[in-house]
Amino acid sequence: MIVDIENLERYYEIDNKKHYILKKINLKIKNGECLILKGVSGSGKTTLISIIAGLDKPSSGKVLVGGEAVSKLPDLHLSRFRAQKIGIIFQDFNLINTISLIDNLIAAQVPLNKSLKEAKKSAEEALQKANILHKKDKKPSELSGGEKQRGAIARALVNNPDLIICDEPTANLDRENSLNFIKTLETLHKEGKSIIVATHDPLFENLNFLHKTAEIKNGQIAS
Amino acid sequence: MGGNSFFYFLTLDLLKEKQRFAAIAAILAILVFLLSSTLFISASIKHTLNRALDAQPDFIVQSVKGGMLSPVAEGLTDKIASVYGVQKVTKRVFGRYFFDDGKSALIIGVDFLDEQSSRNIEQIVKNINLKEFLSQENMIIGQGVYDYFKNRYFPKSYNFLTPSGELKEIKIYKILSRESSLVSNDEIIMPIESAKEILGLKNSEVTDIALNVPNESERENIKDKLLSLAYSLRVVSKDDVKKLYENLYNYKGGLFMIMFILTAATLSLLLYLRYTLAVSAEKKEIAILRAIGWSIKDILKLKFFENLFLFLFAFITGASFAYIYVFIFNAPLLKNIFLGGENLKQFAQFEPVIDFSSLATVFILFGITFLASVLIPVWKISVTNPKEALV
Hints:
The structure holds 2 protein chains of 2 kinds.
Chain A: E1 3-14, E2 17-29, E3 34-38, H1 45-52, E4 60-65, E5 68-69, H2 75-85, E6 86-89, H3 101-107, H4 116-129, H5 145-157, E7 163-167, H6 175-190, E8 194-198, E9 212-217, E10 220-221
Parallel strand pairs in A: 3-8, 3-9, 6-7, 7-8
Antiparallel strand pairs in A: 1-2, 1-4, 4-5, 9-10
Helix pairs in contact in A: 3-4, 4-5
Chain B: H1 3-16, H2 18-54, E1 59-65, E2 68-70, E3 72-73, H3 76-81, E4 87-98, E5 104-110, H4 115-124, H5 130-135, E6 138-141, H6 143-151, E7 157-161, E8 167-175, H7 181-184, E9 187-191, H8 192-199, E10 205-206, E11 208-212, H9 219-227, E12 233-237, H10 238-277, H11 279-291, H12 296-328, H13 334-339, H14 356-383, H15 387-390
Parallel strand pairs in B: 5-9, 6-8
Antiparallel strand pairs in B: 1-2, 1-11, 1-12, 3-10, 4-5, 4-11, 6-9, 7-8
Helix pairs in contact in B: 1-12, 2-10, 2-12, 2-14, 10-14, 12-14
């Protein structure tokens, strides 16, 4: 999936003065490419990937994801687009703790009008792919950090999206689980998925499947 | 949207917080129970009184002297009967008998030899043997009167004190059914002669005269004619009595309004608390759903069905318990608020009557209040940028 960003700005105004979170961002990711967004905490990485995922709106500029101007889509269309085309993996996993892992995956398929049988089948396949099927009936609160991460990956993959967005995916993982996660990303890359990872983890430097690295400093792309 | 996976998730959503939902459903059910009980009692009373009024004559002619009601001369009956358009002219004898402790009962004298009166009595008291009843001085009494007599060790007869200072013993012939207690609880029905003696009326006097006018358009005209028969006469129509009852029971119905306002206020407060306390957990969950592709409409739909189910469950439970409480257990506590004016112990049995239009009003008003109180905060959370709750 192609992601095309032109002159993207995100700011908030206090007393008619603009405070920039992101300034003049220009970025292009081609189909099947993997981009690492580097930068310290508060640099604007999360805001940028939130805008790409349609979870936040830009103040100005153009954001095209798969040819769709995500910031201009009405809520219903944007939601369906996100459900079908984008899989998000959060730093804190963001699984619903009160329901089982498989039900978390079924929840992700509800917007796509799937029957329960179909939703369960896709959920089991995604859990299998993320190597966490054996814990499908456990609630997230009963899982370890690495298991939660695999659950979050399975949820991001359940609708077979073209774009995977990860926000600090290894921040809460030990080295072994972080390396496992990178292996999973490599598999997804081989399947042709476009991948964007916002991270400041050095493990993501010099990956053999990496196409681009962009460093964000004070809301601007530094390199 | 939807299909099986939506309803599966809806069930999950209801079950995952069953304790919280059970607590909300219980509070809602109690509020619905209180409102429905008031409504059922009010409807039952209105129904019984309206039925009692339907059996009443179209007009009552009374005599007023010095601003006070006084006995009517029996001879007036013939004059009234001679007015064209008037039918079923009946002499009536009744009055309050006060016991020495200040309590009172309504004595009604019936001319059992009069065909119309005896037919009326037969309707109220099933299987009455008039011959046996008239063979000695007997009375038919309401449940409240019977209870009063029994507690004062007069289970079979009672000695009434006449205005001349003599005691007059009347035997209890029959006790009126509990079903009719709403109107007959403090009534004593006895032959007209005995009633006159106890109430201090002369043989030529009656309390009032009842009559019917079948032609409705003639009623006002006939009322004027009746008034012109004597200066001291007062003519009361059935409509006047109906208005009096309506005023009284609209005031009682006002209790329903007060209860409704109180319960609606309680409900709003509870919901406000529910959302201010549960807001962070709810916010996070809604943000997760939004991030995985749920639209605002999908979330509102989920919360609507979730709370509709909750409300329906609470409404059906509350209304069913109210039905059992009022019509099976006869509304202990609340009955005293509605019928507290009775001076003898009240034995009224509420007749099962459901005012569906009022019940529907409660359902709609309560339902809208509840659903709006839930859906507005959910909508507010849903439209907020989900990023805030996720990162």
